[in-house]
From TrEMBL:
Gene: rpmC
GO molecular function: structural constituent of ribosome
SUPFAM superfamilies hit by this protein: Ribosomal protein L29 (L29p)
Protein name in the entry: Large ribosomal subunit protein uL29
Keyword match Ribonucleoprotein: yes
Length: 65
């Protein structure tokens, strides 16, 4: 997910998306532990996408104060 897409989302939608992506990451990591993924770099990209979303959400919180 690109930063432009993240910034277009509302704060509530972003918070929901973060939770959904965290659950998805846990599932992918669990699946990878059971049987290796074809592309293990997918885990890295999911973690970075979650970090981008969390960073943008935190920036919004700081700007609203």
């Amino acid at each position: 997910m690109k930063i432009a897409e993240i910034r277009e989302m509302s704060t509530a939608d972003l918070a929901e998306r973060i939770e959904a992506e965290k659950a998805n990451l846990q599932q992918v990591v669990l699946n990878h532990a059971i049987s290796p993924l074809e592309n293990p770099a997918e885990i890295k990209s999911l973690r970075r996408a979650i970090a981008r979303m969390i960073s943008d959400l935190r920036q919004r919180e700081l700007n609203n104060k």
